[in-house]
Amino acid sequence: MAASIYRHTTTMAISEKSRKILWGRSGNRCAVCKTELVLEKDPFNKHLNIGEECHIISKQPNGPRNMLIDNFDYDSSENLLLLCCNHHKMIDEQVEEFPEDKLLAIKRDHENWVKANLDGTKNYEEVVPKSKLSELLDFVTSKHDIEMNIKSSRQVLESHEGLQIAFSEVKKIKSAVTKIVSDLNEKAPSYHIQTRDNNQHICDIRFKGHTLLVQFYQAYSNVANDSYLLFAVVHGLFDNNGYADPFYPPTFLEIIRLDFSFDDNGVFGWRNQESKTDFYTSDEITETWTAKFFKTVLK
Fold first, then answer.
1. Where are the transmembrane segments (predicted)?
2. What is the pTM of this model?
3. Which of 96, 104, 99 is nearest to 6 (CA)?
């Protein structure tokens, strides 16, 4: 790996500064196919953005190309690759074809390509401005691809295959919860934070007389549609059969139910049953509610 990747000392969400550096050095182009990512305004006067920021090394336990590196800023611009949505999906699904070293080479070559074109040097092929017809083709094609993804996801959601995808996401959540608790126990061993498998496919966290319920309820129809995820912060504990501990009568402090669904690009995840608009990936909802739980207990 290039040495510069290891210079950073913090881990946080992608900052505005890192995002600007990435987009600036990438020239608003996909690093693989060189497609322009922010297209002309559509008839509704909105710019269509098909660009996505891809992590070269993932910080998520089950993420593509995941590695645990001390004092490494996973959200640095140096660990990000700007891609169109199609190549982002391809690269993250074909990890063996796109290992870390290959992605770093793609990033380096692309940023050199952008710089060479901006500087007017002849080492790289010049970017030829697209015609209005080409921009229209890009716009219609991207809209078509998104609609096809949504149609496909809707069909999968109503099938047994969708339920298997839901269970794979549930497995990812359980693994993430277990990893979080393991890391916390390593850093704060005197707290003795516990995880316990429950009867709803995932596991609970027990800490200082409180419980974080993390449960998945499968639809009776044996498909993913109408299956949902539950997170709840509870003051109180439960026994191995799920019954309330008489010494700690449970009080629900906060709760959320999320339907297994897909977003506007056809990507599977979890949609808030109440708001209908809030959508989360498995990693996002797990990180949000474990943080909520521990901040509630330790406030």
1. none
2. 0.54
3. 104
